[in-house]
Amino acid sequence: MTDEQDELRDRLRAADPAASLPRTDPDRVARLLEETMSHTVTTEPRTDDARHRNPLTWLVAAAAVVIIAGAGVFVMMNGSEDPGAPIAGSDPTSSTGEDSVTELRAPGAGATAGRCLPVTAPALGGATVAFDGTVQEIEGGLVTLRATHWYAGDPTDLVTVRAPSENLQALLAAVDFQDGGRYLVAATGDERLMVCGFSAPYSQALAGVYERAFGS
Amino acid sequence: MSSEEREVDRRARFEDLARELIDPLRRYLARRTDAATADDVLSETLLVCWRRLDDVPDHALPWAYGVARNCLANAERGERRRARLAARLSVVAPPTEATREPDTRDDEVLEAMAALRPEDAELLRLWAWEQLTPVEVATVLQISPNAAGIRLHRAHRKLGEELRKIQRVSGHEQSREGSGS
Questions:
Q1: Number of domains, chain B
Q2: Of the candidates A216, A125, A124, the residue with the CA atom closest to the CA atom of residue B73
């Protein structure tokens, strides 16, 4: 290193905003460790995802079966070559107003029976839109979420999920969208909302699946 | 090893690792964002380390800085960014009127840093504040060591140029013993 570089480094170090930061207090370290380790870790990825699913998820998944049927786009347990997750209804991404918006569409009611795949990172990995967001508004068949973290896809400020009005309740039941609630939401390549527990209220377990699917 | 033993072993490994990482990560974040975001991102970074414990290399710190960098980028991409922008800016580019540690601050060097491209300034922060070698900088930024070396060299040169410009403007040239003309 040259003298000039030494001097620059010394001057920069003298201006280090963290120079006066005290060492972390041991109580805080202990708390941080405990908080972190309270999160479930997957060592056997396949079993973990199902094992930690709470009963509500199964209810949601059951409701989602009905919804998926309506979309007519689903994965049959036999005969389908699509390794991806159940998907449901679509609309292209678009922008309106000041906030950029990704538009997704929810399924309508239908007649064909489909079944859910387990919510696992490999199954979720097929999603090209995946984000963490908070419901800002539920109105007129439209659920508007404000995205706070994008796992996949082109980040936009808002994401709307549109359901035909008669199916809004069904959509709300499938993903349990509630005003102000925080959700993890995924959609496949053509912007089709993934239900069946893939899009669901935020939980550490589901966030773990998203993280594994899309990396950190 | 039973699964309980593996779990105990895993926790012990993580505790050792985290104790080593927490202080450097806190400093890394304090240099780049506001306190509230720093706390959030520290938790997220530790969580990634915990979940990916088996992927953590032996020389963990540069890797962990890379994780923190990604988590911070995500945090700032979101809504929180708007609310905390003012606080963040005051750390990244402190205003000329001193708001923190006025006695020890080298305004010129901070002004020169603020005039650099953000990528160059970040390289210099990693080098001077985190005290990383070019190879370690490369790990954080996920670029090749060769590229890190070249960019770092270029960033040094640019910082030197900016400082000389500032000194010319503020009439401090004489203190440089004529080397800055």
A1: 2
A2: A216
B144 CB-contact burial (10 Å; exposed 0-12 / middle 13-18 / buried 19+): exposed
Residues 47-106 of B with CB under 8 A from A: 47-53, 67, 70-71, 74-75, 77-80, 91, 94, 100-101, 104-106
Shortest CB distance from A11 goes to which of B51, B91, B109?
Answer: B109
Query: What per-residue confidence (pLDDT) applies to B41?
Result: 92
Question: What does pTM read for this prediction?
Answer: 0.52
Q: Summarize pLDDT for B24-51 with one digit per residue, the tens.
A: 999 999 999 988 889 999 999 999 999 8
Tell me the nearest-neighbour CA distance from A80 into chain B, angstroms.
33
Residues in chain A, how many? 216
Provide ipTM, 2 decimals: 0.75
Residues of chain A neighbouring B18 (CB-CB closer than 8 A): 29, 32-33, 36
pLDDT in tens, A111-133: 233 566 778 888 888 888 899 99
Give residues 129 to 168 of B whose Cβ lies within 8 Å of A: 129, 156, 159-160, 163
Distances (CA, A) of B105 to A8, B38, B46: 14, 22, 31
In a domain, A31, yes or no: no
Judge whether residue B10 has pLDDT over 50.
yes
Q: Are both B63 and B107 inside the same structural domain? A: no
Domain that holds residue A109: 54-214
